[in-house]
Amino acid sequence: MEKFVEGIKALCTPDSVHICDGSEEEFLTLAKLMEEKGTWVALKKRPGSWYARSDASDVARVEASTYICSHKEEDAGPTNNWKNPVEMIAILEPLFRGCMKGRTMYIIPYAMGPKESPYTKFGIEITDSPYVVCSMRIMTRIIPLNEGKDYVLGVHSVGMPLEPLQKDVAWPCNQTKYIAHFPESKEIWSYGSGYGGNALLGKKCFALRIASKIAKNEGWLAEHMLILGITNPQGIKKYIAAAFPSACGKTNLAMLKPTIPGWKVEVVGDDIAWMHFGEDGRLYAINPENGFFGVAPGTSRESNPNAMKTIEKNTIFTNVAMTKEGNVWWEAMCKEPPEELIDWKGNLWKKGSKEKAAQANSRFTVPKRQCPIYDPAGDKPEGVPIEVILFGGRRKDLTPLVLEAISWAQGVLMGASITSEITAAAEGSQGALRQDPFAMLPFCGYHMGDYFQHWLDLEKPGRIMPKIFSVNWFRKNVDGAYIWPGYGENARVLKWIFNRVEGSTDGTETPVGIVPKELDTTGLDFNKKEIDTILSVDPNLYKAECARLATYFEDTFKEKFPKVLQDTLARMEQELSSTS
Ligand code: O2Y
Ligand code: MN
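Structure tokens for the assembled complex are given below, as produced in the milestone run.
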């Protein structure tokens, strides 16, 4: 570790070096520094909260510039960009040479996972961005330098050295961007972006891309999953881990406020789960993160009242809009926007404007313990026992509201088959289908065919496997309106799932899984025929879907697509043929 830090210092030639301690004093010093530079604005209406506006070109993950650098191309697989590590270092070294001139190099030692957990892992992030230091203080646990071991080593630079007397900009970054992962040496090199998952290396880079490879080697799982606890009116509690592609309401589900009496949800995590089998054969999950980095637009008292309470204080807001009074605003936060705002680009915005006031990927960064429904068991070193794994997608037709896998293999196939319709017109072909196996497509640090096999191999004698379900909140009727009300009403679906695990409710077996015989819809104003439709399986439509999926798997993963999954899919297709 010392050698890495010394090497990076010699390469990047910063003006000064600061070893971070994660203290409040350090946070405030850096916050003031950023305030002076115009990077941060203190939010008068939210105690301890800050507002940041990024460069307009630096607003999201950069998948095209994200690489897995393994010695063999096959180890990165068809769904990752690949470069040989030697070649990648030859590209990166010249970019990093002198890149921190005129800046301070911050060394952040951090832990991913609860204190004293055997599953916690450690990282060092070297960065020249004070925004990253302050964000990492929320999203990870900053530790003394000598506390951790086996560090995943990371270096991040905004890629904008300063000449003497050169004035800095509010959001330094570089048009050239690289997010390079070296799973074999457990290193991360990130250049050119100061934003989110590109720059906060503990999150997607470490906790998913590097950790997924470590997990494969060590026999556990590093997943793009929320973790929630659900308690029934009798006081029985169960834990669910759930994978959804982006823009499918993961944070809303993690912080769900049930509409059905007597049911309670508590949140452990909203994005990442590390899961290990315990000696008792059960699967235990920890959330390696310490905070939430949630999407702001769409978050409201209706969609996610718990998130709204969580972000009342001590929150960093990035790329939302700001009010004259020193508060924040974003689309769908409330029915009526203020008359005037400063939009995410720093321009005056007036009510009725066609432009969005907040950037679509604008974010809040907030300590997880501020959430009113944060689960105290979320900090248990051994983690929480997972009884249910949920896979979700976004389909306007075909996939039922909820479906239970009949076997572990069928459940793994459900994860591998996650499909989402592209929603934003800006992304191009609206409505087109995007495959996102296990919601891990951008985050799996090795060959996804091997990843499927790893999931299959988890089932072993003596293990109590969680039950696997798929859900789809997004079915539409002929008029294009959502059939299922969603949000807090999703608790009704969780209730059915809970009761299936308890063995206290029935289902109807179909070739593609088990659908509810009955769902608690008491008090819901709904069209019975439409609800019946979304609770059933159309064999003809599903047959076509099986054929579509078979082609996708064969074309993408070729001989690495596990035979067990091929056979499971073929059997489903056959059974559908005999029922249609
Ligand atoms: O990584 C980013 O900067 C934006 S994307 C993101 C952020 C937090 C949690 N999840 C995601 C995601 O794309 O899954
Ligand atoms: Mn995510």
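Residues 60-61, 195-197, 204, 246, 271, 293, 361 surround O2Y (ligand 1) (CB under 6 Å). The longest helix spans residues 539-557. Further analysis is deferred to the final report.
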